[in-house]
Amino acid sequence: MSLNLLGRLQSAVVWVTATALMLSACQTTQTPETGAGTQVVANTTTQNVGTILIDGSSTVYPISDAVAKEYRKTPDGQNVQVDVKFSGTTGGFRKFCAGETDISDSSRPILQDEMDACVKAGIAFYELPVAFDALTIAVNPQNTWAKDITMAELKKIWEPAAQGKITNWNQVRSSYPDRPLNLFGAGSDSGTFDYFNEVTSGSTKASRTDYTASEDDNVLVQGIANDPNALGYFGFAYYEANLQRLKALAVDRGNGKGAVLPSRQAVEKAQYHPFSRPLFIYVSFKSIRDKPALEKFVHYYLQNAKTASAAVGYIPLPEGAYRITTAQFAKGKIGTVFDGTPQPDVTISELLRKQAVFQAKTDNQSGTP
């Protein structure tokens, strides 16, 4: 497969291998499950083989941090340092595709331009779903007037045309009071920013900018908890951890089924639309090859993702999803089951279907799809 073809590929299965990179710094290796020699650019970044570097989504951070803390208590974890940070999904992929990290936490599937950057740098990856999120629209508990919000109202509030114009609550809904509307939301390096904008405005970067923005969800929680006129959005775990300080709004998709509050049950039953989304870790194939400790850690992560995600307030995947993911990692199946877009409103059932299709395709063929 040529680099240009891979850069253009938009299908259910996208192989991210650097097959056509003809650079002098390349070395040829046998990539797992492709059945063909693949040229992988030698990574010139110096990394400590006893250190596992994780960065990316602040939404996924609590899961990775919880797993890392428990791993340090195991015999294998005594001999390795697991460094977990967050700079947002987009910021994390920027580092990951430059070969600076081993694992990239992500609150959305990898985008096409990020895949292109990884290919250019020779970074093949494993895409491993670890949990589900119910992206939450929240207000201050002193807000007595808003109990739900429609998708049309969210677009009205957050689209670029709203900047400097939609500044009061009564502009959102005429029955609301004449009070200032103070907004808090994800920063532009956040996968939550991309996902929320795709859902509300139809484009990952289509958002007003006159709001308090941060890649740190705790900053957003603090802002809303201190402001009776606030409205914002972030991952479900941050709402669950602050139930006394926040109030969630039920979301009305406008399909006649009414407004639905974010909850584990609503996500599992595919009722919380369109803010139900899978959460991922992306693991560097090169780092797996170069750091023996990383493979053990990833297996531990997948074995404990269900417990860790539930413990920090997210929705675990069904056992079947973890089995498929673990098997795909063990067999060395690299690539993504998505097509380089944020993929809004993917349900747990749809994720399982995509994983099964990916498994079947890669089990029954070698080389490129």
Write up this protein.
- The chain is an alpha/beta fold.
- It folds into 2 domains: about 220 residues, D-Maltodextrin-Binding Protein, domain 2; about 130 residues, D-Maltodextrin-Binding Protein, domain 2.
- The protein is about 35% helix and about 20% strand.
- A 5-stranded mixed sheet has the order 4-3-5-15-6. Strands 10-9-11-7-12 form a 5-stranded mixed sheet.
- The protein is globular and about 60 Å long.
- The N terminus is likely disordered.
Protein topology:
Blueprint: H1 3-8, E1 26-30, E2 37-41, E3 51-56, H2 61-71, E4 81-84, H3 89-96, E5 103-106, H4 112-121, E6 125-134, E7 136-139, E8 148-150, H5 151-158, E9 182-186, H6 191-201, E10 212-214, H7 217-225, E11 230-234, H8 236-240, E12 247-248, E13 250-252, E14 259-260, H9 264-268, E15 276-284, H10 285-290, H11 292-312, H12 319-330, H13 348-363
